[in-house]
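Deviations from the work plan: none for this task. Representative record:
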Amino acid sequence: MSESTLPDPHPLGRHEVARSGTSQPLPGALTSTPGVPQVTRHDLRFTGSAGEYFRLWIVNVALTLVTLGLYLPWARVRTRQYFYGHTWLDGQNFEYRANPSALLRGYLLVGALFALYSFAMQREYYWLGLPLLLLYVALYPWLVWRSLRFQAANTVHRGLNFSFHGTAGESYVAYGAANVAASIAGIFALPWAWFMQRQYQVKGLGYGQARGHFRGDVAPFYLIGLTSLGLSLAGGLVALLLGGVVAGAWSALSGELRAGTDVEDLLDGPTVLIFLGVAYVSFLLLYTVAWQYVRGATMKYVLNNAELGGVVRSGATFSPWGLVWLGVTNSLAQVVTLGLATPWAAIRRTRYVLDGVHVRTIADLDHFRGQAQQPGSALGEAATELLDIQVGF
Amino acid sequence: MTRPPAVTLRGVYFDGHSSRDRAATLSLGESAQLTLDGESHAFAVAALGVDPPVPGVRRVIRLPGGARFETTDFAPLLAWERASGRNRALRGVAWLEAHWVSALTAVGLAFALLGGFIVWGIPALATQAARVTPRGVLASFDEQTLHFLEEQDFIGPSGLPRERQAQLQREFRQVQGWAGGGYPYRLLLRDGEPAGAAGVGANAFALPNGTIVMTDQLVALARSDRELLGVLAHETGHVTRRHGLATVYQGLGLGLVTTLLTGDLVSASTFAAAVPAAILRGGYSRAAESEADRVSADFMRGRYGTTKPLQDILTRLEAGADARDSEPTWLDIFRSHPVTADRVAALKALDAR
């Protein structure tokens, strides 16, 4: 990366002039300017580059393989540090400062338990496998809560760390009860679960002494859910038809439609495999489309309805459909390049999202006051990362 | 250690109590001098925490008391770190990350390690792990599997006459004595189609602890008992080489690789990896079949001087299935057994030696 893409390396705090003489931070997160507040808009900027990140990524993948996975926490932390560090808001970047050794302990514990679980299930030792599964289900909201705390407390901007003030009890509502409801009532409760979870995340978020606030409502989540459902149903139908047509064409072309053969003979070997293959690829594609849409649309909605300390509002202008297109093309590129396009895909997506995110503020961003929060144990973070629990937005 | 050169860095200072950024300079020499608003503050160099470098990302130096200094003067800070020996390991990583040569080497290394691990590492490790697994673990395997097969009507009680069964059992004891290994071998003769075509059909298979199941349909297919002994010797090969248990370990190994690649234990990418994993498992299984064929060939050649009976029954089994499948196609990568033509050719090659 060239130096020129970085912001002015020596920003002479432009607020210095206005507040010369005031070396003490102002109390609270509120502006002291009387009268009508001036709204300032700051766009997020992302300065990461695909080439630079490719090198970081592949070197860390190779090191992870060489060390039989022990280096994985360092790889994860460096990756995050790269993305956070290249994200700029009003001349200052973000920082991720998790301790890889702490993460390693969590990874080893979670990995060992998971290995035990898969061994038990493969050997059909249900007396061992099922209690492990139950333990995981019972601890899931707690793990999410620990993970959110860990992530927030390890995120730093302008020398202050973020924090998370949601409670474990609330997590058992948002991630426990809501997920149970969603698994029973399916699409009828799933959007509500999304809403509860996003609200839990945003309301619990803190930066210094400022607290997050979520102005959003549950209805738009249902709209997102319905759109995604319609998309899946229509896509699934198309995929089935496509699979049938391709398999049928194969069976006709390969001369399997001989006289006297019955249906059972047709439904064997290559024909079925081709049908399954088309269905498999279509399902992956459909999953990517539907999931990317839900992710993109909820992220946009949440960003458009989040506040911090009553003085900062975030906003998003990116299009969820743009993200869907990015998700599909990224996945295809990754498959075609045997995964080597993964870093390029990640940079492309991050750039697209962050170029469409801004904050509006009625106070200068340097008026926040700090409040430390210890990240706590890394167990929750290790569990959510390894078990691919989607937390954060 | 050489004395680090004195460097002066320009950057931003945060006091850690507020989000206010202030321009500052930090001089690193005998001691650390922070110049802020014209005032100078001194720290012991040892009290500074220098975060490891990440490509292109602003560097962070932690000052005592929760304050921090951030700078993009990468080169002088790196020179100072090098001289004072800080962040050795991660500075090395950052150096590797900064060069295309090392990145391309990493690509080659990653593919070689991964390929080598999948092709040789996992089978070797699984075989080794299967070999050292205590005998007691195997015992429960057989009963559970049999119970399952009977419950699902895949196999049922044999319809063979009592004398014929006794004769096959006598002959099996020869194979059993030859195979050795101290397993509690037993031959179970079963009907392969107790509920019509849904059963296992003409088949024989071995369970890890030495239980070998052979179906009436296979017995009927054989033109001589030599053919059946060839099949039984093949199955004892699965037992003595512990292929059943190795399969379990191979599954775990492939799971580990998937985890390393996707970075997640469970995720959509794990689902996407299911097809490649199935192909690899098919490959491992084909290797095990070929190994068991070689075991059987040892037995057959030692006893009859030829593997012809085994070739014959394999060919007949194939003909009983579908003739179309006998020609190799790209879909063979999914198969658990090698194409019969290949197996027969391999046996012929062994005979010719």
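The CA atoms of residues 250 and 271 of chain A lie 7 Å apart.
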